[in-house]
Amino acid sequence: YAPGALATVSRHPYFGVSQIVLRGARELERDSVLGAAGLRVGMSIWSVDPTAAEEQIRALAWVRDASVRREFPNRVLVSVQEREPAAIALVEGLQYLDRSGRILGPV
Fold it and tell me: 49, 55, 80, 83: which could join 98 in a potential S-S bond, CB 3.0 to 4.6 Å?
């Protein structure tokens, strides 16, 4: 293969992400999930790293689990499982807590 062929193919508009589907987000805003994962419409599907994106999404307080999948040529599927608030505590203001005691965010 020619050295520049891979670079040319990866930048071709055919492989530009035109749709990002987000499932399972009720409390989380779409922009915060996609921003944490570094996903955006227009990026090359070849530059989407599902494993890294999943780790970055799981770092969000409300996220219990996440999965990211590329669907060639131009679609990305993101699924999240959110933590369920189980209590409210007074910790620097009112905060939601899940069953494990993890702080999810302000009420």
Answer: 83
